[in-house]
Amino acid sequence: MATLVRAWILLVMLTLAAMWAGAAQNLPFPALVQVGIIIIVSGLKASTILSYFLGLRSASPGWRMLFSIYLVVLGGAIIATYAVGCSLAGRCAILSVDKMHE
Amino acid sequence: MNNGLNDDPQTAGADWGSFSSLPGNPMMWILILGELAVFGALLVGFSVARVLDPETFNQSQAHLHRLLAGVNTLVLVTSGFMVAIAVLLRRRGGSARLPLLAGMALGMVFLAIKGVEYADLFHAGFGIETNTFFRLYFLITGFHALHIALGLVIIGIVCFADSVENIETGAAFWHMLDAVWVLIYPIVYLLR
Predict the structure, then answer these.
(1) Average pLDDT of span B183-187
(2) DSSP letter (8 states) at residue B20
């Protein structure tokens, strides 16, 4: 029971953090970093739900690996898509640095 | 399946291989894997569509109610917590009905908040035909909401057919919806 309560508290805190990060304007870091933080926090939440609520902690290592790969691949694909998008729009930090050297 | 109390005659004698280490009925896990693949493809598709038309997506997303979506995330996470408690209590030989009913009540709150969100958008003149953003928004969140409705029916059934395996099976479906929502929420509502 205590483990479930800790997992729930963690999920609530991570949700509040995501709400703050999503609502925050003019943060002192690039938009792509903000995207990365939000996606990683969300991946941690999904992982916590799968491990503690669903009980994948007691499943075989193969299943745990499969679901971890799912979250990493999905999160990575989203971040990569946004990276391409912000490069095309010319508003990500990497592009800005490149422009400074031109 | 991993509790040693498998009382379903259809699966009790079956060899499900690696699925046997997962909680609940293996057939549910086949469904869950399919659902995760579908929702994953939808979310990647949403992100690609945004890259192709960022202005429309940014302007349209500004009309979504981020706070309500955040509150709904807290509601669904807490509902999942209740259902997880139900599984724990049932495995210990107790009754799971009260936490399951609490989980269902929170699931209904989730759908009610979603209804308010949709009603606000419709009232403001936005619908599924407005543009690509709203088409994908209603498709993804509506598809998820329909699954929540189905999940409520499943949880309602296992309230009464309350073997350990049945409750684990219903809980597995519910937690899958919970995990999918915590991915939908940031991608559709938060990322700009």
Answers:
(1) 93
(2) G
Cα–Cα distance measured from residue B187 to residue B192, given in angstroms and rounded to the nearest whole number: 9
Q: What is the pLDDT of residue B26?
A: 85
Q: Please tell me whether the interface predicted TM-score (ipTM) of this complex is above 0.90.
A: no
The CA distance from A99 to the nearest CA of chain B, in Å, is: 21
Q: Residues 33 to 72 of A: which have CB under 8 A from any B CB?
A: 35, 38-39, 41-43, 45-46, 49-50, 52-56, 58-60, 62-63, 70
User: Residue B41 to residues A39, A79, B61, B102: CA-CA distances in angstroms?
Assistant: 16, 14, 20, 32
Measured CA to CA in angstroms, residue A35 lies from A11, B53, B96, B102 at distances of: 19, 18, 39, 34
Tens of pLDDT, residue by residue over B21-35, are 787 788 888 899 999
Instruction: Print the SS3 string covering A9-46.
Output: HHHHHHHHHHHHHHHCCCCCCCHHHHHHHHHHHHHHHH
